[in-house]
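Posted in: Protein Modeling Q&A

I'm a second-year student putting together a small comparison for a lab meeting, and my supervisor asked me to include a predicted structure for Large ribosomal subunit protein bL19. I've never done this before, so apologies if this is the wrong subforum. The sequence is pasted below exactly as I got it from our records. If anyone can share the structure token output, I'd also love a short note on what stands out.
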Amino acid sequence: MESLIKYVQDEFVERKDLPQFSAGDTITVYYEIREGQKTRTQFFKGVVIQKRGSGSSQTFTIRKMSGTVGVERIFPLNLPAIQKIELNKRGKVRRARIYYFRELTGKKARIKEAKR
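Accepted answer (user: helix_wrangler)
Welcome! Here is the predicted structure, written out as tokens:
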């Protein structure tokens, strides 16, 4: 049964060519918002906290600071509303899920840039 679900997901879910990114990277996600009949493009720029799942059900979490309040947003990787993802900066972290980043503020909340 699981292989049948995986087969359907691989065959019928459309894939976009998005850049490879991981936890610690700073990315900008451009996505489409519909308000009634109008559509507009909005962006969300922040640090990737985690990537979770596999295949077509993969999601990623982005965190940004809006003033003094931290804002997190979870995006499915194959969301049709995502127009593009820009990789702004590669981060050097030692974990795949950087939940400790939520408690850091100020200069401690900086991530070193990776030399790739």
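A couple of things worth pointing out for your meeting: The mean pLDDT is 89. Residues 2-12 form the longest helix (11 residues).
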